[in-house]
């Protein structure tokens, strides 16, 4: 049983080495290189590949694996939109992903950012760094005084709601499909418009599917309270960022925390420290005192990385043993 893992980062190595030690019957080799038609050759003689990359899994790449007799591919992440499924179907690929690795990682990050904007930590930290230790005018707001509107009560939204309750915030929620527990607690409002009208703070936990594209736009922002706080750690395409910037300019949106950005591929997870951003909008957002930008790091915790490596390697092994892991992608 032989698994070849691509794109292994330094922070993934401890989890991978633990998995190898726990599965001595399996031969595992790995590289930090991404999987492409050229590097596919490294997997020659292996039974399955294990991968994580933004780079597309193209027909050429899948053909290269197919020619080596490999048709088992386990992703260490959720997203499968960069796979050529027509080619995968043609070559009868078994594919798995890791849909749930640690909802707490993203939920915690979103609420940490929410509490940071409410306590104006960006301004306060900048003042302290300049040795200005005065309080005013950097006064904060308390979580328990906020009505927080949670849009999407799936895996991550529900953990965020638990954390918010610990803070004593008044939580209201909206979802197209009601969760029994949230329903029993009577937290749902019937329409998004009701949530927009009542919430002091709005946090998004819905997928970036086409139906949700730019759901936060000039029209929806107009329905929100004046001075609303918005948090988006879900998907960049949920927001029309130009409309959000206009809302920040007018003061309609008091504060904004974003971990995702519609044009983040090629921008996030790159060191721009000695270069100009290719996108002036991100520079503008980062420069604002009332905007917190993190580069899609909500998921990035030791626990999440451990789950992504372990679950995907278990799935690779299951495929080799002729089993269908629970996390197999149905396509
Ligand atoms: N920033 C990060 O690092 C990171 C990491 C993982 C996931 N995410 C994102 O977090 C979001 C939530 O993920 P999850 O695992 O909780 O998903 P999930 O599938 O468990 O829950 C999503 C919920 O949204 C609801 N929903 C969908 N469209 C809706 C709409 N228009 N209005 C109201 N509700 C709607 C669904 O019914 C579902 O209950 C996703 O966008 C995901 O891509 C971000």
TrEMBL record:
InterPro entries per UniProt: D-isomer_2_OHA_DH_cat_dom (IPR006139), D-isomer_DH_CS (IPR029753), D-isomer_DH_CS1 (IPR029752), D-isomer_DH_NAD-bd (IPR006140), D-LDH-like (IPR058205), NAD(P)-bd_dom_sf (IPR036291)
PROSITE patterns linked to this entry: D_2_HYDROXYACID_DH_1, D_2_HYDROXYACID_DH_3
A Pfam family per the record: 2-Hacid_dh
Domain D-isomer specific 2-hydroxyacid dehydrogenase catalytic, chain residue ranges per copy: 8-329
Residues of the D-isomer specific 2-hydroxyacid dehydrogenase NAD-binding domain: 113-298
MF GO annotations: D-lactate dehydrogenase (NAD+) activity; NAD binding
UniProt KW keywords: NAD, Oxidoreductase
PANTHER family (alphabetical): 2-HYDROXYACID DEHYDROGENASE HOMOLOG 1-RELATED
Protein family: Belongs to the D-isomer specific 2-hydroxyacid dehydrogenase family.
Protein name, per record: D-2-hydroxyacid dehydrogenase
Organism: Weissella muntiaci
């Amino acid at each position: 049983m032989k698994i070849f893992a691509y794109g292994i980062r330094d922070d993934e190595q401890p989890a991978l080495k633990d998995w190898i030690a726990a599965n001595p019957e399996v031969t595992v080799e790995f590289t930090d290189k991404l999987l492409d038609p050229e590097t596919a050759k490294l997997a020659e003689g292996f039974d399955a590949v294990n991968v994580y990359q933004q780079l597309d899994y193209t027909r050429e790449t899948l053909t290269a694996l197919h020619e080596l007799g490999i048709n088992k591919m386990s992703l260490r992440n959720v997203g499968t939109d960069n796979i050529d499924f027509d080619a995968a179907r043609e070559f009868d690929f078994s594919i798995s992903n890791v849909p749930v690795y640690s909802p707490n990682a993203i939920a915690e990050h979103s609420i940490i950012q929410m509490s940071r904007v409410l306590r104006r930590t960006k301004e306060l930290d900048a003042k302290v760094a300049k040795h200005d230790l005065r309080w005013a005018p950097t006064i904060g707001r308390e979580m328990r005084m906020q009505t927080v509107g949670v849009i999407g009560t799936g895996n991550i939204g529900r953990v965020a709601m638990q954390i918010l309750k610990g803070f004593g915030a008044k939580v209201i929620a909206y979802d197209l499909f009601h969760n029994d527990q949230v329903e029993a607690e009577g937290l749902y409002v019937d329409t998004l418009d009701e949530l927009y009208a009542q919430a002091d703070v709005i946090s998004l936990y819905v997928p970036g599917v086409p139906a949700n594209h730019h759901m936060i736009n000039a029209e929806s922002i107009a329905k929100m309270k004046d001075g609303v706080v918005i948090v988006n750690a879900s998907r960049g395409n949920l927001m029309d960022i130009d409309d959000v910037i206009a809302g920040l300019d007018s003061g309609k949106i008091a504060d904004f925390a974003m971990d995702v950005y519609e044009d983040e591929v090629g921008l996030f997870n790159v060191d721009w420290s000695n270069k100009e951003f290719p996108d002036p909008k991100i520079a503008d957002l980062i420069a604002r005192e009332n905007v917190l930008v993190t580069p899609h790091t909500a998921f990035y915790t030791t626990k999440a990385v451990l789950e992504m490596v372990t679950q995907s390697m278990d799935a690779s092994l299951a495929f080799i043993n002729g089993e269908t892991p629970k996390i197999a992608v149905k396509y």
